[in-house]
């Protein structure tokens, strides 16, 4: 039960930060997205985000900084195993499953529902 609460709190704090950035700055949602992924990558490379993941579990790995964290960790692992070529293959190998799932489930939802562009 404690893990659910900590995941809720950590994930909620990440969302609160994003909402504050949207409300109080002129940053667009796209720029906030890029900032969160970049922050997750940098914090993951510096082993700081590891502590957040340890506390928050899925509350830290599912939001956007978690994607950056996965990119950093998988790239570091591949560089250790493959050398310089790991710079190019690490991020792809580490995040391919998540990206494939997003594409698959997005397609399924588009088949079930009637997607429309905003007017």
Task: Kindly describe this structure.
This protein has one domain (2-112). Helices cover 82% and strands 0% of the residues. It contains six helices and no strands. It has helices at 2-24, 29-45, 49-56, 58-61, 64-82, 86-112. The mean pLDDT is 91.
Short structural summary:
With 119 residues, this protein is mostly helical.
Secondary structure class reads mainly alpha
Any low-confidence stretches, pLDDT <50, length ≥5?
none
- Total strands: the figure is 0
Total individual domains: 1
Protein name: Stage V sporulation protein AE
Organism: Clostridium polyendosporum
Transmembrane segments: 6-22, 29-49, 84-113
Keywords: Membrane, Transmembrane, Transmembrane helix
Features:
single chain, about 120 residues, mainly alpha, 6 helices, about 80% helix, globular
Topology at a glance:
Elements: H1 2-24, H2 29-45, H3 49-56, H4 58-61, H5 64-82, H6 86-112
